[in-house]
Structures are given as C-alpha cells and as structure tokens.
Amino acid sequence: MCDDYIYLDHTADIKFKAYGNTLEDCFSNAAKAMFNILVPINEISIELNQTVTIESDDLDLLLYKWLSELLYLFEVENKLFSEFKINISKDGDKYTLDGILYGESVKDTHHINIEIKAVTFHDLYVKRENNVYTCQVVLDI
Amino acid sequence: MNLIKITNNIWEVPVGYTEGMRVPGRIYASEKLMGKVETDAIKQNANVATLPGILKYSIAMPEIHVGYGFPIGGIAGLDETDGVISPGGVGFDINCGVRLLATKIPIKDLLPRLNRLVEEIFKEIPSGVGSTGKLRLDTTELKKVFESGARWAVSNGYGTEKDLNFCEENGCMKDASPDKVSKKAINRGLPQLGTLGSGNHFLEIGCIDEIYDPDAAKVFGLEKGMTTVMIHTGSRGAGHQICTDQLEILVNAVKKYGISLPDRQLACAPLGSKEAEEYYGVMSAAANYAWANRQIITHWMREVFNKILGDGDLKIVYDVAHNIAKIEEHVVDGKRKRVIVHRKGATRAFPKNSKDIPAEYRSIGQPVLIPGSMGTFSYVLKGTDKAMEETFGSTCHGAGRVLSRSSAKRKYRGENVKKELKDHGIIAKAVTDSVLAEEAPLAYKSSDDIVDVVDSVGISKKVAKIRPYGVVKG
Known about the structure:
By secondary structure, chain A is of the alpha+beta class.
C-alpha cells in the first residue's frame, strides 16, 4: 500500500479514501485526510493533546461521528490535529472509540484552505478487503 | 437504461433506472446541458424517487449536479400522510439563500467609487473560512434568533419592519423549536451570526442590465441602470451542525421504521414521527438563523452605502431560500394535498395571487432570484402557475458547478481570474486569491443557459438581468 489516504475528484465536494492495516489506522488516516484539507498536515505541530470517546452500534456511523467530532473541535475550539492514537473496541453490538488527539491551536501562521461544512453519509463506507481496512468519505464544502 | 426525451427541455428517468423507484424522475434541461450531467447525478435523481410518499416525479432543475443524497438542483414533494422528511433533500447549509437589494443610485454614479465601496464592504462584513462576527450573543439570545429569524434582527435595530414583508416566510419559519437545537450547534452558531462564510457565498454589487418584462420589473421596483446588491449566504456553522446532529438520529430512524434506502444520506423519518417533528423544528430554527444573518448583513450593507455614497436607502426586492423543506399545499391528481416540498438547490416560484407572497407582488408572482457564478449575469424571474402544476411551485437556483474545486484550482490561477474579471470591469475581492480560482466563472454552467430552460418551459419567467460590477468572496 503506497498511501495512507487518497483524494478522488468530486464536482461539488471533496471525496477521499483512507486505508489502514487496522481499523484504528484506517480511522486515524481518515482524520489526517480531513485535517490535511484544512491545512497541510505537516504544518500542524504537536503542542497539545486531548481525549475523545465516540460510541455507536454501527461502524459507518462511528466513522461519521468521529470525523464530525474532530470538525466540531476545529470549528469551536480552533484546534488542528495531526496525530491520533485510537483504540476501537466492540462490546456486543456497540463500538467504542477512545482516542487521544495531538495537535495545536490555530495560529495566524496557519492559512485555512477551505471551509468544510460537514461530513456527509453519501457513499460513506468502512470495509475490510484483503486484510486492509478502507473507508470512503465525502465532505460537504 | 436510457433516459426518455419528453420534450426539448424535459427528460424522464424511467422507473427501474434504480431499484425501488416509486415514481419516474424528471430532469429539466436542454440537450446541451444534458450532455454535461454526470451519471451519478442522474442516479441521485433516481434514488430520490425511492423515498416513501414521493408524489409525481423526482424533479431536477437544469443545473443538476452531484450532491449527497439529493442531487443539487433536486426537488421532491412528499405526501404528508405517508411520506418522509429527509435532510438529504435540504443539505447541510440549511436556508442557504439569496437576497436582492436595490437602490435608485444609477450604477454610473457609483462606479467612480466602486473600489472604495468593495473595500469597505470587505472590511465591514466579516467573511472567509470560519469567519466570526462582530456580534456578541449569549445562548438565550441565540435561541431567540432561532425562534424568530429576521424579526430578531429587526427588533435589535438591524433593519426595519418593512424588510420582513419582502422575505420568503417573512424571514421566519414559525414551527422552529430552538429548545431542541443541540449545545454543539449553539456553540457553532454563537460567533458566526452576521458573517458571510466562504466557498460559493458572496456579496455582489451589480446593475440592472436588461429588462424582459417591464410590468413585472416595475412592480418589483427594478429599472434599467439602477444599482443592485446581492447577498448569498446561509445558516453557517449552526445549520451545518444541526444537519450533522439530525443525520445521526435519522440514520437510526431508518432502521427503526424499516425504511429501505439506496443512499444513507437520504436518511429520513415518516412525517408525524417524533424524529420527523424534531428535524422539521430544528431545520426551521437553522432557517431562521440564516434569515437573521442576511438581515444583519443587509443592515451593515446599508451603513456602508451611506458612508461611501451618502445614501443607504437599499430596499429589499426579495429574499429566497434555496436549501429548505417546507409544508405547502399543492394540487396532485386534481386533489389539494399537504405536501412536504424539499428544495435542495432549487427556489420557490409561487405565482400571482398566491397568499404566501407579499401583497405588493400578487399581481405578478414572487420574484425568483438566480445568482450567476462569479462575474456572470444573475437573473430576476417571476413565479408562475406552470411551476405550481409541474414542479411543486419551484424552479432553478443558480449556475451549478461543472468543474470540481480542485480541478478549477489546477486549471486557473486566482490572480489571472482576478485580472480577467478586471478586464471585464468587475472588481473581485476575496480573503485569498485561491477562492477566486475555485469559483472561476468557467467552473460553472452558464446561468444564461439554465435560466433559458426554466423560462422556455415556463416554470418561471425572466424579468430582468443583472450585470456584476463588484464581488466580495469569503
């Protein structure tokens, strides 16, 4: 596998796929793909960290909630993240994602490329093929 | 499966194009525009036809392009008795819409000061990614915004009572439920009231360039050569978060009510259910936020005009929502029914004598505002009886993209776009030049072609054309 994530052409919005050998890597790469749209990911330093917990009984919904939460933290708390340590556990039907997010507050030196309005459910999926997890996401911009 | 050509400008997407279609699709487009429609957009039009309770057709306007859930330019009327409501038919930018202001100042008198005017607008009206406003509200006050929309703004000194008369719904959906708006949506909404945002949102100084229907233009108060201001923005982060919250609830509702959907972005709930009531209530709250937003921006625009030109008398011609779902009465198969009409990148186009339009316009029909892409013509149309018969009183909303933002950026450079616009006598001002590349005029279908289709079919009729002179982009 060459890339952690790739962007696909979409007329009105932004579409990407993210990959990982584990579900956690796949979710982490999806988060990187999203932040990289806001600011080149190598321009996000690690100065702070915070934890999040996301729960859902549906893996697609878990991904949607995960990225939506990160977008909210960017919008409201003005934080950018570039590294993610996450653990996804399953208890019965319920998935729980425990994550530590590493990044920094938005600074004057950051130029935010584009406004992401939201994570959509359109064409969204998480699947495992040939031992690789792949997810696809369309962001409304 | 091939589409069926019904007339020169109407194409049918036959039942069976996608599994589970309850009605056919209908795309209003010329042969030329049809050639540019993506297969995925047609598939999305077909997907909408699978929604429970859909009436007549899944309708698409000439600017149809791929969205999420509904295509952009999509319209669906669903039966109140057995239909559903879906945020996929409204979008994240709830009540993204357009407001047109007009002043008696002739454009020729304004042009020498256009540069200063554009600079001042850029300075006074916050724009750009994540732009935050000059207002400082608390949660209690924000809930009043969600409750009463443009009226909140007028009550707080932003504009006059008369302004409300010239907004769709008088700038307020009365079924809003502010108490159901999440804490997250409130947090996103608090700093952004009175901001333009970014992307395709804009403020534009223009001029009435051509009149097609002198009687209607007179009633709308439009004269050739007069200056206009167009405001295109929506409910900002508050609306985006409200839709985000609701989508999760409705994805679960789909399972609960056993609804089968081809795209989860079409997540929905049966009308009358707890989930549908909640969505309609908070969507209405977001719509109200958007009306307050455009009202506040109007007020600041008047202040800028007053400061630079000594005349801040900007009258509202009309204010329309082009991303919204509303309960309306329509005649279907000869019977009057209550229908939940979803307009996702489509504009209401109610005809003359409609009780839902300002009394001043009832001899003509409502003004329909169709913004062009940056640097191209915009149009004022009027609503028609034909729209009531065919498209649930709806028409097109704008230009519609043909090139993705990244392709546009690869193809055009911001500074070149700016220069080209300048060569055509248009001043463009944006936070960054890259947004000018993304929004380059050629990244969009021509608004002329789109408007010609709806005019020719008769679901709205051309009244006037507006030429742009100054654009502020977020």
